[in-house]
Fold this protein.
Amino acid sequence: MSTQTQPAVSTAARSLRDDPRIAQAKALILEAIAEHSGKLTDVRPPNPELAAEYDVLLQAAAATRGGPLIWPYLSAGLGNGPYVELADGSVKLDFIGGIGVYGCGHSHPETITAAIDAAIDDVPMQGNLQQHPPSIRVAQRLIDWASSAAAPLKLCMLSTSGAMANENALKLAFHKAAPADRVLAFDNAFAGRSIALASITDRPSYRQGLPLALSVDYLPSLDHRDPERSTRWAVDELRRLLARHPGKYAAFWAELIAGEGGYYPGSHDFFAALCQPIREAGIPIIFDEVQSFSRTSRPFAFQHFGLDEFADIVTVGKITQVCATLYRETFKPTAPILSQTFTGATSSMAIALSTLEALEANGCFGANGWNMRRHDLFAAGLQRLAERHPGKIAGPFGEAMMIAFTPGNGSFEHAKRMMDLMFAEGLLGFVCGSNPTRLRFLPPPVITTTEHIDAALELLDGALAKFDPTT
């Protein structure tokens, strides 16, 4: 009997991926990108020769969308870390990243490599009838991270958007708790833009003209100025609602760090005081981490706040590219309520895996990991700016790599004016919340450096110098 190692069984697709010409092509592409993106190392103004062409593009965007863009941002298709080039030739320091989707910044070589590998696969979109191994690897990685402590989140459904991930979460909760049909949420909640999720979102303008699809009751959020009293109020209101609608609640919906609502974090004590009676009442608990995932001391904010035991259903998105709903085996549906023609693009799944690996490899997590250390640096800088520009900026607010400040009097008008001044200076941040409206930053966790934070603070300082809150 021969002891010689037999060659591994291969497929034509595997042979293609291993073809040295593919490796050579990728190396050449990365070399070219590095050469050109390496020129983007600082902010720069628009090129006047591109102004007319850019204006035509902006007008076309407004015509097709039915209204102008909230800011004149059209990407040129190249960047370098947190720096991004726009089609008018300007370069911006991007500290919002499409609202948190650029975990590795712009034109990151590992992201590009993942996208190229996906492009040569004959599965552009995965879904109900066409699955591909990358979807299994993404789901397994998310499950491993989510269940690393006391949260038994063993199942995962991928989806194309955070809204779809949240819709799937609602389906699972309603299916489990039927015939219960009400939802508990926090005031200032944001769940998404679908009709059902707009019913949960505590923003009347976001559901104007839309039918209310769900009956939702709201609990007061944590007030960090008086945590003991606000916790007592929230628990009292919870008990009142549970007594008023016994057996009627199908879900408790919680953003552990309110994202669109204005970057309001909770705490372990606050959430535990609510989750315990909710668990005792048999109500499914949903943690919405579409924006907060990967931005705290642990991959999940429920881990950051020590709430593993209460996690029944958890949603993630944005930075993961492909979104996901993770849930306990006890929530496995007994009817075919979860099925999608598209669960995500293969390129999105490849980039998701690359990003998850980079987050771990670059030390983003841990009590003294990069996420928490960079928060401290950024928060201290914002505090200095608040002292230097009294009446122009309040804060900082938020948690870890979700950080915000309030411009002027907190009106949308002041926030929008400040956002436009920042844009002109070369710094990208975006509005969130109402009463007050804040400006938020979501720096890319994998690649943001101390130098990038210093550059952002310098640009913000320049914008604040031009900001007049009295008008």
Remarks:
- The radius of gyration is 23 Å.
- The CA atoms of residues 122 and 218 lie 47 Å apart.
